Amino acid sequence: MRVQDMNWQMVEAYLQRDDRCVLPLGCTEQHATLSLATDSILAGRLSEEVAGPLGIPVFPTLPYGITPSFMAYPGTVTVRTATYVALLGDVLNSLHAHGFRRILIVNGHGGNAPGQGWLGEWLAAHPGARVQWHNWWNAPRTWKVVQKIDPLASHASWMENFPWTRLPGVTPPDERKAAVDLTRLKQLPPREARTLLGDGNFAGLHVRPDRDMHLIWQAALAETRDLLEQGWSP
């Protein structure tokens, strides 16, 4: 259940019987022909579809992440790593103060990885808490399905092209784009990165049939649900 559909009394009552919650992390950045909010849309929707039937609160998705390399693409918003880690710490501190002890972070943006590295520091200071950081799109079972469908897949390609990340009136190219040299890309400033990437797709087709996307989504739902139900250390 979404926190925006609850009041504080409902949360207080929930905490009398359970200490789990879900925190989705997204980003606002270029995704070729897809929505700039693709990472946020996917992390938020996945969290709600998994936690809703279990009656577990899902907090609003953090819509901004760490994405400095895409700042030559209008609409992209990036935050400094120090800012992001500080914000994440404040959010987790708030959840912990209210009594949440098992927090599943559903991350939709690879650039947020510094938060995952920092998480050990937070856990060391909160020994009674359990936090799982779940990069849903490349988690083992979900990524296996992606690779089985088409191994040429990456950021802003077909693997993120779901019905809910597409934009009306926008027709994606038919090209099957060769994989970008990521080692080279990571060395470039934003304007040169845009020149290398073009529309922003890293590799592969821009779109595949909806039946393929359904398979990926079902795998992601099952994998995330298992973490929420069974992934907690004693």
pLDDT below 50 for ≥5 consecutive residues: which ranges?
none
Secondary structure: helix percent: 40-55%
Shape: globular
Average pLDDT, rounded to a whole number, is 97
- Assembly state of the chains shown: single chain
Work out the strand percent: 5-15%
What fold name goes in the CATH topology slot? Rossmann fold
CATH superfamily: Creatininase
Sheet with most strands: 3 strands, parallel
Q: In terms of structural class, how would the helical and strand content be classed?
A: mainly alpha
What is the name of the CATH class?
Alpha Beta
Alpha carbon gyration radius: 18 Å
Description of the molecule:
The protein has one domain (3-230): Rossmann fold (3-Layer(aba) Sandwich), CATH 3.40.50.10310. 41% of the residues lie in helices and 8% in strands. It has helices at 8-14, 38-51, 81-98, 113-125, 140-149, 182-185, 190-197, 210-230; strands at 20-25, 102-107, 130-135. Strands 1-2-3 form a three-stranded parallel beta sheet, with helices on both faces. The two termini are 25 Å apart. The model has no long low-confidence stretch (mean pLDDT 97). Belongs to the creatininase superfamily.
